[in-house]
């Protein structure tokens, strides 16, 4: 782990809290969330588990904010949460606040490893605590696509989620023969091992349909809040450029040896998937009257060959988050 320890020492703090399912809390309705009231040098959370942002020397969070002061929301999964940032001040919501000429702060509504169902539920559950909201940006897309490769029996009605195997196993204690467990009832006794994996085309179609279904409810909530809504398809390293800078390539090589990311998500990493997935989403999003941005091509046009953006395939360095925030503000 030489590259990780030397280039991204802050990642150890994230791995320690999120590498194992027993290190973060299981919570009703969301399945899991970040540890509440966590304090550390790299990241901090409020009483509900939302990550703090920092702006002009002050820190704030979704559940620790003046309800009379207007704000903007950045929602999504771990990239919004800020995996890879060396401190709360370098997350994407913090960098948006820092670089935005408008007065409203950006609240961090990111949930690590969330799919679109969980992203939506997070807003539904905490909407009552929000101040006046000027704008909502949903910065998402990868997790739905990645999870679409799981067997159909794990998708159920609202899409599969990370750690679903652990969840169903926890609901399936040993019982006498003939007694159904909750997990078996949920899974309808399907044997996932016998299912044919979906093609990349089926994954793209499924992920886009699920995302658009949930975005329709986001639109309803945004109208109720009188907030502008924009959907941003988040970038992957290979969607931005096939070969990264020297630091990125060293990290990617080491991470592959540890976790086989490319083996699990190889097809998804191809640049043409970004265009196919993005086009399906664009058509559906714009038909709702919602703004759509595929940020990867925008980053491709501006990134320099030696510019270090990513700490892994989907999360950014401090400078990477700042770079993405500036590019995003140019097109919002």
Short description:
The protein has 332 residues and is of the alpha/beta class.
What portion of residues is helical?
40-55%
Tell me the radius of gyration.
20 Å
Structural class by helix and strand composition: alpha/beta
What shape does the CA trace take? globular
Which segments are poorly predicted (pLDDT under 50) over 5 or more consecutive residues?
A: 178-190
Sequence of strands across the biggest β-sheet:
6-5-7-8-9
Secondary structure: number of strands: 9
Number of helices: 16
User: Beta fraction of the residues?
Assistant: 5-15%
Broad CATH class: Alpha Beta
Quick one: biggest sheet? 5 strands, parallel
Q: Would you give the CATH topology?
A: Rossmann fold
The name of the CATH architecture is: 3-Layer(aba) Sandwich
- Going by CATH, the homologous superfamily would be SGNH hydrolase
| Tally of separate domains | 1
Roughly what is the average pLDDT, rounded to an integer?
Answer: 89
**Secondary-structure element string:** HHEEEEEHHEHEHHHHHEHHHHEHH
Note the gap between the termini.
Answer: 38 Å
Outline the secondary-structure elements.
Blueprint: H1 2-7, H2 11-18, E1 26-27, E2 31-32, E3 53-55, E4 58-60, E5 71-76, H3 78-81, H4 92-99, E6 105-110, H5 116-126, E7 133-140, H6 142-147, H7 152-155, H8 164-170, H9 182-187, H10 200-225, E8 228-233, H11 237-240, H12 246-259, H13 261-265, H14 271-287, E9 291-294, H15 295-302, H16 318-331
Parallel strand pairs: 5-6, 5-7, 7-8, 8-9
Antiparallel strand pairs: 1-2, 3-4
Helix pairs in contact: 4-16, 5-10, 10-14
Considering the chains and any ligands shown, give keywords for the structure.
globular, 9 strands, alpha/beta, 332 residues, two-stranded antiparallel sheet, 5-stranded parallel β-sheet
């Amino acid at each position: 782990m030489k590259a990780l320890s030397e280039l991204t020492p802050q990642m150890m703090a994230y791995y320690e809290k999120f590498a194992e399912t027993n290190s973060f809390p299981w919570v009703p309705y969301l399945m899991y969330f970040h540890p509440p009231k966590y304090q550390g040098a790299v990241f901090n959370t409020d009483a509900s588990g939302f990550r703090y942002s920092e702006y002009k020397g002050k820190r704030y969070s979704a559940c620790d904010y003046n309800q009379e002061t207007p704000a903007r929301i950045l929602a999504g999964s771990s990239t919004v949460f800020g995996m890879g940032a060396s401190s709360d001040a370098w997350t994407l919501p913090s960098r948006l606040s820092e670089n935005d000429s408008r007065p409203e702060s950006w609240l961090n509504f990111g949930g690590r490893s969330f799919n679109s169902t969980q992203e939506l539920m997070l807003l539904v559950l905490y909407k009552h605590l929000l101040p006046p909201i000027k704008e909502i940006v949903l910065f998402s897309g990868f997790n739905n696509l990645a999870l679409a490769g799981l067997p159909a029996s794990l998708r159920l009605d609202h899409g599969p989620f990370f750690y679903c195997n652990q969840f169903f196993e926890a609901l399936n204690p040993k019982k006498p023969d003939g007694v159904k467990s909750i997990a078996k009832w949920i899974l309808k006794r399907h044997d996932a091992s016998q299912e044919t994996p979906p093609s990349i085309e089926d994954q793209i179609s499924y992920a886009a349909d699920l995302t658009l279904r949930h975005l329709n409810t986001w639109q309803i909530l945004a109208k109720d809040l009188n907030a502008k809504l924009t959907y941003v398809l988040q970038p992957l390293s290979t969607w931005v450029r096939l070969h990264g800078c020297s630091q990125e390539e060293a990290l990617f090589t080491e991470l592959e040896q540890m976790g086989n990311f490319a083996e699990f998500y190889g097809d998804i990493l191809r640049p043409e998937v970004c265009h196919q997935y993005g086009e399906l989403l664009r058509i559906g999003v714009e038909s709702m009257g919602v703004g759509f941005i595929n940020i990867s091509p925008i980053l491709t046009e501006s990134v320099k060959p030696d510019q270090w953006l990513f700490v892994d395939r989907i999360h950014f360095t401090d400078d990477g988050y700042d770079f993405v925030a500036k590019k995003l503000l140019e097109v919002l």
